[in-house]
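Hey, can you fold this one?
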Amino acid sequence: MSRLKVTSLKTKGRMTAITVLAALACGVVPFLSLGLAPLPVQAQALPSQQSVPVLFDARARLPKPDLSVLLRLRFLTTVDFPPFSFLDQTGHLTGYNIDLVREICRELDVEAKCEVQAVPFSDMEIALLSKHGDAAVAGMAVTAGLRRDFAFSRPYLMLPARFIVPRDSVGKADTPAALAGKPVGIVNGTAQEAMLKAFFPAIVPVGFADQAALMDALKQKKIQAAFADGLQLSFWLASNVSAQCCAFLGGPFLSQQFLGEGMTIMVRKEDGFLAAAFDYALVSLSRKGRLDELSRRYFAEGFY
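Sure. Predicted structure:
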C-alpha cells in the first residue's frame, strides 16, 4: 500500500506527551475519543473564477444513513502526515483529517461513538482487515489491488499540480502556454514530471534531484518556472525560505491518470455501507461550505 505523494512543512511540535511516546514505541497510539458532546484522464485546469474543484454535486440529496446500531466507529490514522495528521506540541493528535473526522461524525449524529487511533502507515491495511478499526483516513493511494479488499468514499480533497514562476515574470506570462520552448524545472521521477511531458510537450523539462534543488534554481532564475505538487508549493510560498520570490501561474491542474483519485476514506469491502455513510456526510459538508472552511483553516495560502 502506498500513500499519496504529499510533502508538507514539518510541524514544529514534538511528541512531548510521555504516554503517547510509550504507545508509539509499541507501534500504536490508543484510541482517542473525539471529545465531541472520478476525474477525466486529461489534465484539467480549473476556471479562473473557481477556487476549488467541485467534488460533489450540490443538488445531490443522498439518504441519511442510520448508524444507531453501531457501538462505536473507529478511525485509523497516522502521526507523521502533517498537516493532515500529526502530534502537536502537547502530544495531542491533530490535523486536517482529524477535524474532518469530527465534522463527519457530527453530520452522522455519532459524535459520542467516534474514536481515532494512530498506527504506523505500513500497518494500516492489516489493522483494518483484522478489525482493529473501521475506517482509515491517512492519504492512502487508491489502487486496483486495494479495491479487491477495500471500499472507498468519494474523494474529499484533490491534490493538483501547479506552475510557479518568479514574481516579476507574472505579468509577462499569464498562462502556461507562454512557457512553450522555455526551461521548466521538475523533480526527476515524480508524477508531475510525467504529467508535464504528457500534457505540455512544447515546454522544455529540466530535471532536478529533489524539491530543494528545484526551488533554489527557481529563486536564482536558472529556470523560467517549476511544475510540482500544488500543496507542497503553497507551503513553500508561505515560508520564509521563498522570500516572497515567486507566485503561481495558471492552473491548478488535475489528472486522475497521474495524480490519483484524491484523498478518500478506506473501509473493509464488506462495510461498504460505511463508505456510503461517509459520502452522505461529505456531500452535506460540501453543500454547507464546511469543507471549504476546513481547507482555509489548514491551507491559508491556498493550493488551488
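Residues 150 and 268 are 4 Å apart (CA to CA). Let me know if you want another pass with a different chain boundary.
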